[in-house]
Structures are given as C-alpha cells and as structure tokens.
Amino acid sequence: MNLFRKKSIHLLLSQSDGNKLKKELNAFDLTMLGIGAIIGTGIFVLTGVAAAEHAGPALVISFILSGLACAFAALCYAEFASSVPVSGSAYTYSYVTFGELFAWILGWDLILEYGLASSAVASGWSGYFQGLLAGFGIHFPTALTSAYDPAKGTYIDVPAIIIVFLIAFLLTQGVKKSARFNTVLVIIKIIVILLFIGVGVWYVKPENWAPFMPFGFSGVATGAATVFFAYIGFDTVATAAEEVRNPHKNMPISIIASLVVCTAFYIIVSLILTGIVPYDQLNVKNPVAFALNYINQDWVAGFISLGAIVGITTVLLVMMYGQTRLFYAISRDGLLPKPFSKISKKQQTPIVNTWVTCVLVSVFAGLVPLGKLAELTNIGTLFAFMTVSIGILYLRKSKQATTTRFRVPFVPVIPILSFGCCLYLALQLPGLTWISFFIWLLIGLIIYFIYGYKHSKLEKSDKNDHVA
Length: 468
Prior knowledge:
By secondary structure, the chain is mostly helical. The protein has a single domain, classed as Amino acid/polyamine transporter I (Up-down Bundle), CATH 1.20.1740. The chain is globular, with a radius of gyration of 22 Å.
C-alpha cells in the first residue's frame, strides 16, 4: 500500500494542458477575486467583537500580526502558484511535495474551510439583507429568518438559501461573467470603505485609544486569531490557476497585491473605528455602521450597510468558486466520484459539482446555527498555510521547480516564520475547536480508505506500470 505516492510537476502540467476549463482571467481579475474574498465579514462584522472582547484599541496590532502571518504564507503560495499553475491550491501542492494521503487530508481540510466559510458568510448576508429590508418596512416571517432554533421560533434561513442558489447560478454561467460581476461589486465595496474613512477620520478622538491594550498582549494574540478569519480568501486565488492567462506571472502578483491592499484597509479602518467609539461599546454585529450612527452620520451608515451586503456577496461568490474548483481537482485525480470533474461543453464550468456545492452550503446556512464555526474555519485555513509553508522546503529540496519563476526570498527563513506564526495563531483557538477539527479529519480518512485509495488515478497507473 503506497499512501505517499507523489505527482511530479511535469505530470500535473501535462494533465492541466488537456483540461476543458477556459483560460479567461488576467492579473486584474485575479486581484479582484482576492480582494472580493478577503474584505467582507471580517471588516464589517468581526472588528467590533474583536475590539470589545479581546484587543481593545490594540486591534490594529491584531490585524498586523495576522497580516504578517498571511504575508509569509502568501509568499509560499505565490511560489507554488507560479511553479504549479494547476487547480486545487494547497491540495495540489501537497500532492507534489508530501504525496497522496497528505494531499487528500489537505483537500478534505479545504472542503471544511470553503464549505463552512460559505455557509457562515451566507448567514451573515441574510442578517444584513433583512436589516436593509426592515428599513423599508419589509419583514420575513420569524420562522424563515434564521437557522433552526425552536426557542426563538426560527426554523430555516430562507434569505441565506436564496443567495446561495443565486450565486451558484452565476457560477454556472462561466468564470468570466462571474469575475466581471465580482469586479463591479469589489469596486462598490472599496468606494464604501473609502467613504467611511473619509467621513470617520474627522471624528477620531485619540483619548478613545487609551488604554491602548486593556486585555494585555494575550488579548491582542487572541484578537489576532479571531480576526484571522478576515484574511481568509487570498488562497482562493490559487484555485483559479487553470483559468488564468500567463499564470506563472499573474498568480504571484495577484496573491500578494490582494493581501497588501486588504491589510492596508484593515489597519486604517480599525484605527478609525476604535478612535470614534470607545472599544467597550463595539460588541455589535454591524460595528462600522454603528460607529457612523454614533457620530450622527446616519446617511453614511445606510451606505455602509449596503456596502456590507455587497462585500459579503463577493466573499460568498469567491468561496463557493474555490469550493467548486477544489472538488474538480480532487475528482480529476479519482479521489472523489467522476461527476465532480464533469465540465459543461457550453459554459466550460463544472456544472454538477457547482450545484452539489450549492445544496451542501445552503443546507448548513439555512438549517444549522453556525455560532463558533468561524473558529473551525480558521483552524482549517491555518493548517493549510502551515502545510504549504513546509512544502516550499520540500519543493526546493526536490529541485522540481524552475528558477525562472517567482521564488520565496530568504528560504528557509520565510517558510519557517510562516509556519511558526500560523501555529502560534492556531494554538490561540479553543480546545473544542481542535477536537472538532480532528474529528473532521478522521471522517476524511475513513472516506479515503473506503473510496479514494481504490479509485485513485495514480493507483491505477501504478498497477498498469507494474503489469507492463
């Protein structure tokens, strides 16, 4: 039993050359996908909770710490994306460096990240959307407004299910249409954030920044682990590799550019937010709009709420897109059933797995109260980042990658720093989150040994070679 059989970069590239996914994306499209995935729930929802419960005004340091961890990881992703421009992100990279079993574990881990993140984002979208409708006097029946919770009289979150189905329909129409729609929404989102900065900066009171670190550095560290959710998404850019023109150049540019832009926005917004409102009053679901109401700029707050809906829509779009391309890559290797890698001849997109993704995400978003699942999403992402970081060391040692493409500087220092930062943030998460994560991985291993190992294309090719 060979659980650690590997794919060479040459084999991966030859497989992708025959793929049916259309190469339509450029560096700008990819950067917009990255920004679309990153800026959303983190900046519009998590900033308030993280400031009030963990970091206080030192929230800006929490964002910088998380941003640094992501920056190191982004460099590692950029080298892999340049050297192995194939769908699947960390799953594919692990196939090259660690072998099939680790690749499956990473793939299963990313299914957790994209799937639960999509469900959580859809639930957040529903809350903002219902708030917007309430402003016009329109209300859904209570039973249809949130996930199953008989004590509160709610049974199903209908708006969350509706937006998931609408996004799935858009994804089936082709990647270029999805990218154009995403770009328009990202531009609107950036304008709204700039509006908040332009208005809010004049109401900052430096005395609100004291005490700067009310919960000590441990609070800042916990805040960093919490707001890490705000950075999840730049790795989604790597899942688009096979639909990118000139991926060796455009992938690294887009991964790093999207992260830099978003980190700058997070730092500025967190400073202004805690400068306008005392940190202990920010434990609300809509902290950015709340801050503007606090200074009686209600007209801007309305625009911010609309911007939040737009922002969360782009996150959902890119997360679901990443999930479908991940299913495609795993199925193409035989580790999931063939329908997941079936491509529509007309739209050149994986139609079947898009609708499967839609149903799974809508079930969780509509029926399950997600609560602390942002933490479970975080640990899944951190695990992927750590694996990719160490993978760079294996990639360099194997000397498979060409030296003419993007390379991480200061190896092995940067990959080790990336691994260390991500591990530190992961250790800040609750013990229950770790237990849940290991249970998820155990379920994945059972599926691999029951189905994946026997149907692996590498397993079949190994047998054919042996017979020959």
